[in-house]
Design goal:
By secondary structure, the protein is α+β, with helices and mostly antiparallel strands. The chain is 69% helix and 8% strand. It has twelve helices and four strands. The chain has a four-stranded antiparallel beta sheet. The model has no long low-confidence stretch (mean pLDDT 79).
């Protein structure tokens, strides 16, 4: 009987404040969709870091004849065979180095033509203008500075470059976008909580006569509060369900179909469905508990039961 009463009161409360209930549902859905999106963005950035950092190389570019005339780092002339042998030997002795690959001028010229063959500059370049280099794969990409300190400024070395620095700028931008999404999410959560509290108070005020009678006949505080808390929880759960639907649709249409980024951007390792599905229980639990707790504390002060 009591359960039936609580359920009937939930339905009455939701119908009486239909407009505000709808506002609560929408605000909870949007805020939790942003919450889930920010979590997935963090997973995506972590996945991309693991994928790309495993592929980046440190490049040691060697001086050629052209550099000897124009670059202060190559003032002592083009790299010699002995210098190249010494650089390669020192690289292979370093414990942080996984592999060392030598690229000749002819190979560098071939790779340049493959990538930038349509460029007007490509027609004027010759193999002897290209730089020999060593491509070093590190066991830990974070240890780039060890290689830079050991070889930067050495005779025959024009420069030491770390591809990780380019990726850091990209990941910095993605992280900035993620924090911006979290800030919007936090604002939306505040709005949702304010709407929940206001909706509960309006509902309690519209039924103040019933709650007054229930207090007079000795009803417990929880028995009086339960319908209002359940109303907020149900509205929040509907919003959380919509948020889960948004995330599933976004994953389906943005990555797999529709925009089909997984096909158009083959160089990006996108997160899978498992990453999305593992976030859904957290979103549903938050959508249920957050409105219920907000209603509970609002009612304690308002009803004074």
């Amino acid at each position: 009987m009591r359960a039936q009463f609580v359920l009937s009161e939930i339905g009455v409360g939701l119908r009486r404040n239909l407009t505000m209930t709808f506002a609560v549902i929408v605000s909870v859905a949007l805020s939790l969709a942003l919450f889930g999106g920010s979590l997935l963005m963090s997973d995506q950035v972590s996945t991309m870091k693991g994928y790309w950092y495993d592929k980046v190389n440190v490049s040691i570019f060697l001086c050629n004849k052209s550099d000897a005339e124009s670059d202060p780092n190559c003032a002592k002339g083009a790299v010699t065979d002995d210098q190249k042998k010494q650089i390669e030997a020192d690289l292979k002795k370093m414990p942080i180095v996984q592999t060392v690959t030598y690229e000749s001028q002819d190979e560098a010229y071939k790779h340049y033509k493959e990538q930038f063959g349509d460029s007007p500059l490509a027609a004027s370049l010759t193999p002897d203008q290209m730089q020999e280099s060593y491509r070093i794969k590190l066991k830990d990409p974070e240890k780039y500075q060890v290689v830079a300190t050991a070889f930067d400024g050495r005779d025959g070395v024009q420069s030491v470059q770390d591809q990780k620095g380019i990726l850091d700028n990209l990941f910095g931008l993605l992280n900035g976008m993620n924090w911006a999404a979290r800030a919007v999410m936090a604002l939306m959560l505040v709005v949702a909580l304010m709407l929940i509290v206001n909706t509960v108070r309006v509902s309690a005020f519209s039924r103040r006569r019933e709650t007054g009678i229930m207090r007079l006949v000795g009803a417990s505080g929880f028995y009086i509060q339960a319908p209002f808390i359940a109303e907020a929880a149900v509205a929040g759960l509907i919003g959380g369900t919509l948020a889960c639907g948004f995330l599933l649709l976004a994953r389906y249409f943005i990555i797999d179909h529709g925009l089909a980024l997984s096909e158009k951007l083959n160089l990006i390792n996108f997160i899978g469905w498992d990453a999305v599905l593992t976030k859904l229980p957290l979103i549903l639990a938050t959508s249920l508990l957050m409105p219920a707790l907000a209603a509970f504390f609002a009612l304690r002060k308002y009803l004074k039961v």
